[in-house]
Task: structure prediction
Amino acid sequence: MQMTVESIIEIVKKIVDISIVWAVFYYILKNIRNNVKLTLLFKGVAIVIIIKILSDWLGLNTIGLLFEYVLMWGPLALIIIFQPEIRNALEQLGRTQLLGRHKVLTVDEREHLVYEIVQALEQLRKSKIGALIVLERDVSLSNYIEKAKKIYADISSDLLVAIFFPNNPLHDGGVIIQGDRITCAGAVFPTSSTAKANKRLGTRHRAALGIAEETDAIALIVSEETGRISIAVKGELYYNLSIDDVRMMLIDELRPKRDDELEEEDDAYEEEK
Result:
C-alpha cells in the first residue's frame, strides 16, 4: 500500500489528536489524585456507574431505573453541591506547571536543601518557636506568593529561624520554598475543614493540611506550644515526628519521579531473578 502525502497528514493529525486527549486526561487525573475531596467524589461516581451496569446485567429493573435518574440528574446536583471543590480543582489545573518544577534540583542541591530545613526545624523545635514551611512541587503556589512578602533568598537555616522568631512581622504566616530558594514569607493558606483537622489542631496545622489537600506541596509545622514537628503531604498529617523521620520523609518526597520509577523497575527485576 503506497503512502500518499494526504494519508501521512491524516495519520499525523490522529497522533496529535490522541496525544492531546491523553495529555488532558493525564493532568486531570494527576490533579484529582492530589485533591482528597475530588478523589472521593470520583470514587462515588464510579460506584454509581458500576451499580447501574450490574443492575442492567442482572435485570434489576427498579434499581436500574432509580440509578438511571441518578445518572441523569446527578451531574447537575454534583456541580451545585461540589462547586467550591470543582472550582478549586480547575484553579489548581490552571496553576499546574506543564513542565514540572521550575528547577530540577541536583542530588547535592536536594541534600543541601534538606540539611538546611532540618537544621532550622531542630533550632525551632528546641526553642519552641512556631513555624510553617511549605515546599512547592508540581502545582504552582503563585496565588499565595503574590499576596505574601517576597524574599527570593538562598535557602538558609539561620534565615528560616530569623523569619519565625517571635515579634518578627512575618512570623505569623508561612514560608514558601521554590526549588532551593526561599521565595516569600507571611503567606496565608486555606485551613482544612475535613474530619482529619480535629479541634485540637492549631491554625498552622490546619493551614498545612489545607494546602496539602489542595496541592501536592509539602508542609512542615513546628508547634509553638510543644515544639513537636509535623508534616502534611498528599492530604495526610503526620504528627509528632522525630528529626530523623522528617529527614527521611523529605528525602523520599523530594526524590525526582524518574528515580522512583527506576527503583521500582530494579525491584521488579530483582524479584524476577
The beta strands are 131-135, 149-154, 174-178, 181-187, 218-222, 229-233, 236-241. The longest strand covers residues 181-187.
